[in-house]
Amino acid sequence: MSMKLRVLISAPYMLPEIGRFQAVFDEAGLEVIVADIDERLEERELLEYAGHIDGAICGDDRFSRKVLEAAAPRLKVISKWGTGIDSIDERTAERLQIQVFNTPGAFTEAVADTVLGYMLSFARGLPWMDRAMKSGNWEKRRAHALHELTLGVIGVGRIGRAVLMRAAAFGMRLFGNDIVKVDTEFVESIGVRMVSLEELLRASDYVSLHCDLNPTSRGLINQERLRMMVEGGILINTARGPVVEEAALIEALQSGRLNGAALDVFEVEPLSDGSPLRRMENVLLAPHNANSSESAWEKVHWTSLRNLFRGLGLEVPEVVELNLRSGARMD
């Protein structure tokens, strides 16, 4: 008698709706383990499942070498709900023949819209005028139109390009930086100047981060580079928390070197209650939610399921393909 395939579901965006996918798992004969998580499973928590699961649909869980070696050879596939796979030791997974899938490009428009919202909020002073009015103050504020300002984008991939296109529509002066060559046609059509990181930091009123987390980007925005930024500049991070050295950023904000920051991601998530960032009036914070988009989330639910089935060597249920084609919900 063959052992029933068992899968771990720990993707925090999928868990609240896991009930509507149960029929898909049942039809395929899969046993589902639903993880109890707040944000992600750490190494010690994943080790409890090692040797007991054949696949996983995960968020930013810490699939370290230790976890993967303990989970093999039973674990066959990790289906990442979303794009970033920096929390998975890819080299070890490859060595152990554990397939790793993700959903690239799923959140491009949502994240780009979020960045534009942050830029407009700071340029026009919208959150602060709202607070003042609700406190009983009728107070005029100096503001900027976006066409008066310069944007520097670090990481000109899908999301970085989408941000630059939006900023171009507002007439902003544009700079870009990337470790790989960016398509010349895009650069010329959008009017962005590709420059060194140092030149971008010294010239940009807004610096928006859109690079992957890897050895070249971890701690990229440190004390030295924060000091290169335009005095009174704004840092926006919707990429990965560890790209920025948080202590150095806090110091730059407290000293007045920077006018503000918009942060959707943090070195350690959730952000601790005691973080000075929570008490800064010139900082806009969000709980790693820049990807929020009903249609995008729905597509990622079904794509993650398809990737799981493929990784397990199972036929993809027709309902999965139908929902990916139609975008319809399964209620």
Secondary structure topology:
Elements: E1 6-9, H1 22-28, E2 31-34, H2 43-47, E3 55-58, H3 65-71, E4 77-80, H4 90-95, E5 99-101, H5 108-124, H6 126-134, E6 150-154, H7 158-169, E7 173-177, H8 184-190, E8 192-194, H9 197-203, E9 206-209, H10 223-228, E10 233-237, H11 246-254, E11 258-263, E12 283-285, H12 294-311, H13 318-326
Parallel strand pairs: 1-2, 1-3, 3-4, 4-5, 6-7, 6-9, 7-8, 9-10, 10-11, 11-12
Highlighted features:
331 residues; alpha/beta; Rossmann fold; seven-stranded parallel β-sheet; five-stranded parallel β-sheet; 15% strand
Task: Please characterize this protein's 3D structure.
There is one protein chain. This protein is 36% helix and 15% strand. The mean pLDDT is 95. The two termini are 34 Å apart. By secondary structure, the protein is an alpha/beta fold.
Short description:
The chain is an alpha/beta fold and 331 residues long.
Instruction: Please identify the top-level CATH class of the largest domain.
Output: Alpha Beta
How many domain units? 2
SSE series: EHEHEHEHEHHEHEHEHEHEHEEHH
What's the overall average pLDDT, rounded?
A: 95
> How does the helix and strand content classify structurally?
alpha/beta
Query: What would the principal axes of the Cα set say about the shape?
Result: elongated
